[in-house]
């Protein structure tokens, strides 16, 4: 099977446009029907009264024209958000028709984004049939953002037998080629020399690891434009290695490459929007498996930085991948450095599945990310890089251990491990994400999710115009 996740970027919406008449789609709240029913066509008003449509959340009404053919639709918003209302709409409407949203311009972007993201299903024709007409420049931006989110979702949802390190690397190379980025894929002996920690993580698998790097410049970027660097954890399946995960904990481990998928989706949005920046992206693609060549607990590994690491737990492999990537990314002295990873269960224990943990060494950068998350309803929660826990990573046999000596603050000590490989003068943000929806909600179908993508994109757009010191 040839993975075709890039299809979501083929049209600005990530969905196939279809010819023919588009039907209008209205949204109302209960008070709209009581006080100002004139906002709906006459045939819709009559139909609503006939069938008892009250505008409550989750209700859908289809109304005919004079000839009895379908003329349009109405959805109920209840007292909920516009995003949630339209997020439910895509699954409830006839998929053989195209739809045109008729809604207040003040919340039109939320309506469009909810509709498009609610239309997504993993590798189904349903997502291809539902379309949304262009409604100007703002709508085009939403279409790009939605397509990039669905692109990331598709990568995360793809089963590990179809999405190994090589397949993930190929997707990254195709994305780079699509936008004219300079790219390279590092494998085999070259990878072992440049990224020894990543090589150690992937050594136990018959599917060898790879690192993809690409560099891109916006069409209006100049020498003074900021350099933004993205790093993503791309563990395509994580058994835990010799510290084997329980079966229940292994069931969703195809999503352990969610950090790389989100980084690729974010890069795609940056390039599609042609932001005036210089961009570098690095993803470490590997599979953490068990074999005679796999790393063992108590092994001492070399890293790109020259720092030795004692493997206290082979299931703490994501930080080993990121430490090599972050060290190399710092060599170019980026203005802002972001890494994204499904790194710790401890972050989920602390914050649950819906709030990615943000660790940041720069208050201004952290404030921008948090504010952007609130505006886009893609929120994160900042957690501390508490220096008092650094000694918990001490090792008697190496410069540092990959796990803490204490059973507390696992997300914090993981972030402190990464900070060890980041230059102090570089503003850096680490996002520890779940990258998954455990159940279907409005605009968020069960499966892979590009958590923090919108927050980071809006932050980068802000950062390009306001230099952070």
How many β-strand runs? Answer: 17
Radius of gyration: 23 Å
Strand count, sense and closure of the main sheet? 8 strands, mixed
User: How many separate helices?
Assistant: 16
Across the major sheet, the strand order is 5-6-8-7-11-15-12-13
CATH topology of the largest domain: Aminopeptidase
Count of distinct structural domains: 2
**CATH homologous group name of the largest domain:** Zn peptidases
Query: Based on the structure given, which CATH architecture of the largest domain is correct?
Result: 3-Layer(aba) Sandwich
Task: Report the structural category.
Answer: alpha/beta
> How much β-strand is present in the residues?
15-25%
Average the pLDDT over all residues and give the rounded result. 92
Dominant shape: elongated
Ends distance: 48 Å
CATH class of the largest domain: Alpha Beta
Overview of the molecule:
The protein has 469 residues and is α/β, with parallel strands linked by helices. It folds into two domains: 5-149, Leucine Aminopeptidase, subunit E, domain 1; 158-463, Zn peptidases (Aminopeptidase), CATH 3.40.630.10. The chain is 36% helix and 19% strand. The chain contains 16 helices and 17 strands. It has helices spanning 30-35, 42-51, 82-92, 108-119, 126-129, 137-157, 165-178, 188-194, 196-202, 247-250, 258-272, 318-331, 345-351, 363-376, 410-419, 453-463, and strands at residues 22-28, 60-64, 70-76, 98-102, 182-187, 210-217, 227-238, 278-288, 300-301, 309-310, 336-341, 357-360, 381-382, 400-401, 428-432, 436-437, 447-448. The strands form four sheets. The chain has an eight-stranded mixed beta sheet with strand order 5-6-8-7-11-15-12-13, with helices on both faces. Strands 2-3-1-4 form a four-stranded mixed beta sheet, with helices on both faces. The chain has a three-stranded mixed beta sheet with strand order 9-10-14. A hairpin with a 7-residue loop joins strand 9 and strand 10 (309-310). The chain starts with 21 loop residues before the first strand and ends in a 6-residue tail after the last helix. The relative contact order is 0.12.
